[in-house]
Description:
162 residues, alpha/beta, Nucleotidyltransferase, domain 5, 5 helices, globular
Amino acid sequence: MIVLGLDPGYAIVGYGVIESVNGRHKMLNYGAITTPAGVAMPRRLLEIARDMRTLLDAVKPDAVAIEELFFNTNITTGIQVAQARGVILTACAERGLLPYEYSPSQVKQAVVGYGKAEKKQVMEMTRMILGLSKVPRPDDAADALAIALCHANTAGSILPAK
């Protein structure tokens, strides 16, 4: 199974692609879709949508996993991330893919075994599970690989978003 993990954002959308076969995981690709600061939000969203379509066409994933939206204290940032997440979900739906959604604590539990693990622990465990020599950069890409691993470890026990 090819899993595309996504860490949504409007400045950076992290992505990570893994192949998972019989409980063994292999990193195939990772990176980030970026949009420049100072550009109007509609243009940033258009760029994310275009790049997501290109990524989905290149990867042809069997499953897409995305981090659930959660709000910290900055509502404005949360709304902007929600808008970016909307164009990401639309690009997936256009390709017939219904993403699986995971909370940050679900990702931590699946990768580290502890739902309140520190970010550094998740990144290091992701590196170890995938047999990488170093933690992927940017952090958003490492997070996306962890989200893909979360799905690979829990596939079959969760339904896609409706």
